[in-house]
Design goal:
Elements (H helix, E strand, L loop, with lengths): L2 E9 L2 E9 L13 E2 L6 E5 H6 L3 E4 L1 E5 L2 E9 L5 E5 L4 E4 L8 E2 L4 E6 L1 H32 L5 H27 L15 E5 L4 E6 L6 E2 L4 E6 L5 E7 L11 E6 L2 E13 L8 E8 L13 E7 L3 E7 L4 E3 L2 E10 L3 E14 L3 E6 L8 E5 L6
Antiparallel strand pairs: 1-2, 3-4, 4-24, 5-26, 6-21, 7-16, 7-20, 8-15, 9-11, 9-14, 10-13, 11-12, 13-15, 16-19, 17-18, 17-20, 18-19, 21-25, 22-23, 23-24, 24-25
Helix pairs in contact: 2-3
């Protein structure tokens, strides 16, 4: 039987490791240390106490804990639809008093620009005339009702008076609603306060994304004038491949960073997972930041690198340095037996999993438990 020997020779205070193969089972150097390995089809390694101490090896237990795998994805910073506004006009008009710049901050209720149109004057005039007639028509209706109850006037007069009053009332209310759409308070409107221009105000606090008109231009009804964005709520939109779709669900944690600041890691939580796969075989994942105060550091459209932490699983684990790689396979060395002169080690193949703090989850090819003793340091000298 062949014996593989690892010999450590001491010369001038320096230690040199020499691996040699000999046909003699008992042949060794006087100052050397041998590591005997069983035949190639065996996974056992014989180690003496002297070899263990000289190579500064260490034993450790097999740990059990929760470990989470991660999915690396890419994404962008986005604003939800309620934070986007396209400013247009209910009625056409000529744009006046426009001084906005892209990127400029605006507050809710702030005047963005004004519109000028003779139709605005006629709308106010119609309201005032109808409102003034309403008082007379209401009084006439009440008079005809009294006369009809005393059988002094014909019933048809009451019906006509009521119809005239209800028609004027409906028109008044309609005109009042129309005036509110162009920011005119009908209750405060008088002939002296008729406006030639109406203000278009911001419905949100945010910033100007785009300006699509210029002063003096006629803005038709429903024409787009200004685009606004609000950064009050920013979310992270991640792109997930189809193969990982069933592994992700709301509530899972996300860590992400910008390529410009890779060391600054932020955290988010998955809020919504898309329910359909697009043509690129991907789905969108919507996540909310855990710390709202960090939203100010993000810019809509910013590119992100992210890691989704999957649900934790109970797994066996060992220190990362105790997992050894040989021919693209991973192994750990466990203490199979304790002898008078040392130890018998067994090489166990494992499949590595998620990483924790200095620990690596493993799936061994054979059953192991918490009583298993693992070589956690110095194993690279033996394989």
């Amino acid at each position: 039987m062949k014996t593989a020997k690892l010999t450590i020779l001491a010369h001038l205070g320096a230690t040199l490791l020499i691996l040699s193969t000999s046909c003699s089972k008992n042949e060794s150097s006087e100052n050397g240390i041998e590591v005997a390995e069983a035949p190639e089809d065996s996974r056992e390694i014989v180690l003496t106490e002297d070899q263990f101490r000289t190579m500064k090896m260490e034993w450790g237990p097999l740990h059990t804990g929760e470990f989470s795998e991660e999915i690396t994805v890419q994404g962008t910073v986005q604003i939800p639809v309620e934070g986007m506004r396209e400013i247009s006009a209910y009625y056409g008009g000529y744009v006046q008093d426009l001084k906005l710049l892209e990127g400029e901050a605006v507050k809710k209720g702030e005047v963005l620009f004004t519109l000028e149109n003779p139709d605005f004057i006629r709308l106010q005039q119609d309201y005032l005339e109808t409102r003034s007639q309403l008082t007379y028509l209401k009084a006439e209706f009440e008079r005809q009702r009294i006369l009809a109850s005393e059988q002094i006037s014909a019933q048809k007069n009451l019906i006509k008076a009521e119809a005239d009053y209800q028609s004027a009332l409906a028109k008044t209310e309609s005109l009042k609603k129309q005036l509110s759409l162009i920011q005119i308070n009908a209750e405060q409107l008088t002939p002296e306060s008729i406006k030639t221009k109406v203000a278009v105000t911001s419905p949100i606090s945010g910033f100007v994304e785009g300006v699509w008109v210029v002063p003096g231009q006629f803005l038709p009804a429903a024409g787009k004038a200004v685009s606004l964005l609000s950064k009050d709520h920013i979310h992270v939109e991640l792109v997930l491949f189809e193969k990982d779709a069933n592994r992700v669900h709301p509530g899972q944690k996300v860590e992400f960073s910008s390529p410009d600041k890779p060391g600054e890691v932020m955290e988010a939580k998955i809020y919504v997972v898309g329910q359909s796969i697009n043509e690129q075989r991907q789905i969108n994942v919507h996540a909310h930041l855990l710390d709202d105060g960090q939203e100010s550091k993000l810019t809509p459209g910013m590119f992100l690198q992210a890691r989704i932490q999957l649900d934790p699983k109970i797994s066996l684990a060992v220190p990362e340095e105790s997992v050894l790689e040989v021919d693209q396979e991973r192994y750990i060395l466990i203490q199979k037996a304790k002898t008078e002169s040392g130890f018998v080690l067994e090489k166990v193949k494992v499949i590595p999993g998620a990483k924790g703090k200095h620990y690596l989850a493993i799936e061994p090819e054979k059953a192991l438990d918490s009583t298993t003793v693992v070589l956690v340091k110095g194993g690279f000298n033996l394989l």
